[in-house]
Specification:
Blueprint: E1 6-8, E2 50-53, E3 61-64, E4 67-69, H1 72-88, E5 101-106, H2 115-118, H3 123-147, E6 152-157, E7 170-175, E8 178-182, E9 189-192, H4 198-214, E10 218-224, E11 231-235, E12 238-240, H5 243-258, E13 271-276, H6 285-295, H7 309-337, E14 342-347, E15 360-365, E16 368-376, E17 383-385, H8 394-409
Parallel strand pairs: 1-10, 5-6, 5-7, 13-14, 13-15
Antiparallel strand pairs: 2-3, 3-4, 7-8, 8-9, 10-11, 11-12, 15-16, 16-17
Helix pairs in contact: 1-3, 3-4, 4-6, 5-7, 7-8
Length: 415
C-alpha cells in the first residue's frame, strides 16, 4: 500500500465554468506531492482570463468577466484595472517571518498550446490571449513581492521543464493550469492557477510552501463548488461528503501502517514524553489569510470563487482532524518500535515544555502542525525533527527520529 502524507491543500473546484465566467476555460486539478513529469497543458483556453467568443458570420469578441469587448485592447484594459484593484488589497502579513528567497521561472512564450489547438486562431487573437496571461502572471508575482512572504523574489524566463532553485530557497513556475513550487531535495507540489482573485492565489501559494516544508502527513484536499458554498473533501483522490467517512478512511490507513511497525534494533532507551497539540483551534495559513481579508472587507465569503464561512470551517476541521489522527498514530508507532524504554503520550496545548522527569521530550508546537521538536535532558538546545522526504511509512519515520536524535545528542545505541 502506498503511504502518502497529509498536507492541507487549498484546491478550488470549477470543472465546467461557462464561457462568460472569469474562470472560463480552466480545468482545475488537485495538487500533488508526487514526482513531477512535464505534461501538455490541459486547460481548454490556456487559463487566460480573456476568452474568445465567436459566432458564425460575426466578428470575434473578447470576453472578460461578464462583459464582451469589441477589441482586445478594451478587454486587456479591463483586466489590468481589475487586477490592479485586487493587487492594491495585498498587504505584508504582520509579524510574518519570510520563508526565504524564491526564483520564479516563466516560459518564453506565455501560451504553450499544441499546434493543433492554434491552427485556426489568427495571430492577432493569439497575441491578445498571450498578453492576457502575461499580465495576470505579472500581477501574481507582484503579489508575492508585496506580501513579504519571501525575502527575495527574482524572475527569469526559461523553457526548462523542471527548473531548479539555483541560488534561491524555492523555485516557482507555471505549467498549463497549475503552478509548481519546488525546493532542493523535495518533490514539487502544485496548486491551481485558476483562482479568480489574486489574494486567493496568494493564499494557495502560501499553503503550497507549508505543504512542501511539512511533507509529513496524508494527502487531504477539497473541491470547492463554483459558488463557494459547498466543499467536497478529498482523501487519496477520492471524494468524501462528510467528516465521519473521511476520518474513518484516515484512521483505517493509519491502522494498516501501525500493524507493520516492528521493534528497532538500534534503540535509544530512556523515558520519552510525546506531546501532541490539539489543532482544533488552528487554521491553516491559507484560511487565516482569507479570514483577514474577510474581516478587512477586501473579499466576501462565497463570492468570486472564495469559500463560504461554512465551507472554510469544514475544510479546516477536516485538515485538523486528519493531522491529529496521524500524529497520534505516529506516536503509537514510536512506542511500538521500542526506540525508548518507556513512552508517555499527551495531547495538550504546548506552552511550556517539561524539562524534568524525562530523557527525551518530543512535542508539537501549538498552532504549528508539521515537524516535531526535540528537547533532551542532556542539553544542546531544542531541535526540529524532519520527516523522511516524500512518502514513507511509520517504521521509516521512527528510524528517522532515532537517527536525528542520535546525531543531535550523540546518543549511544542501546542493545
Amino acid at each position: 500500500m502506498r503511504v502518502s502524507r497529509l498536507s492541507f491543500k487549498l484546491v478550488p473546484y470549477a470543472a465546467a465554468m461557462v464561457a462568460m465566467s472569469s474562470l472560463a476555460g480552466c480545468t482545475i486539478n488537485p495538487g500533488t506531492t508526487t514526482a513531477h513529469t512535464p505534461r501538455t497543458p490541459n486547460c481548454s483556453n490556456g487559463c487566460t482570463k480573456i476568452v474568445l467568443v465567436s459566432k458564425p458570420g460575426l466578428p470575434v469578441l473578447y470576453s472578460f468577466g461578464t462583459v464582451n469587448f469589441d477589441t482586445a485592447e478594451e478587454a486587456l484594459a479591463a483586466l489590468r484595472d481589475t487586477e490592479a484593484t485586487e493587487l492594491a488589497t495585498i498587504r505584508p502579513v504582520k509579524g510574518a517571518v519570510p520563508y526565504g528567497s524564491i526564483r520564479v521561472v516563466l516560459p518564453t512564450r506565455p501560451l504553450q498550446w499544441p499546434a493543433s489547438k492554434t491552427a485556426n486562431i489568427p495571430n492577432n487573437e493569439m497575441e491578445a490571449l498571450s498578453q492576457s496571461l502575461a499580465v495576470t502572471r505579472q500581477n501574481l508575482i507582484a503579489s508575492l513581492q508585496k506580501s513579504g512572504h519571501f525575502s527575495r523574489v527574482t524572475v527569469e524566463f526559461s523553457d526548462d521543464p523542471i527548473p531548479a532553485p539555483l541560488n534561491a530557497d524555492y523555485v516557482l513556475w507555471p505549467e498549463g493550469d497549475n503552478w509548481f513550487l519546488g525546493r532542493l531535495g523535495r518533490n514539487p507540489v502544485n496548486f491551481s492557477a485558476s483562482a479568480s482573485n489574486i489574494g486567493f492565489w496568494l493564499a494557495l501559494a502560501s499553503d503550497a510552501v507549508a505543504r512542501l516544508n511539512s511533507a509529513s502527513l496524508h494527502e487531504v484536499g477539497f473541491h470547492l463548488s463554483a459558488d463557494g458554498q459547498h466543499a467536497t473533501l478529498l482523501y487519496e483522490g477520492a471524494p468524501y461528503e462528510d467528516l465521519i467517512t473521511l476520518n474513518d478512511a484516515v484512521a483505517r490507513d493509519n491502522a494498516q501502517q501501525l500493524a507493520l511497525v516492528k521493534p528497532v534494533s538500534n534503540r535509544l532507551g530512556g523515558n520519552a514524553l510525546i506531546i501532541l497539540t490539539d489543532h482544533s483551534a488552528h487554521k491553516p495559513f491559507g484560511m487565516r489569510l482569507l479570514d483577514s481579508m474577510y474581516v478587512a472587507g477586501l473579499a466576501r465569503p462565497g463570492q468570486n470563487g472564495l469559500p463560504s464561512i461554512a465551507a472554510s470551517d469544514l475544510i479546516t476541521t477536516a485538515a485538523n482532524g486528519a493531522l491529529l489522527s496521524t500524529s497520534q498514530a505516529r506516536a503509537a508507532a514510536v512506542g511500538m518500535s521500542r526506540l525508548f524504554d518507556h513512552v508517555t503520550v499527551e495531547t495538550v496545548p504546548v506552552t511550556d515544555v517539561p524539562t524534568t522527569g524525562y530523557d527525551y521530550v518530543l512535542y508539537e508546537m501549538t498552532g504549528k502542525p508539521g515537524p516535531w521538536r526535540l528537547h533532551a535532558a542532556s542539553g544542546g538546545g531544542d531541535v526540529i525533527l524532519t520527516w523522511p522526504k516524500g512518502s514513507s511509512t511509520f517504521q521509516q519515520d521512527v528510524g528517522s527520529i532515532g537517527d536525528q536524535i542520535r546525531a543531535s545528542q550523540r546518543a549511544p545505541v542501546v542493545k
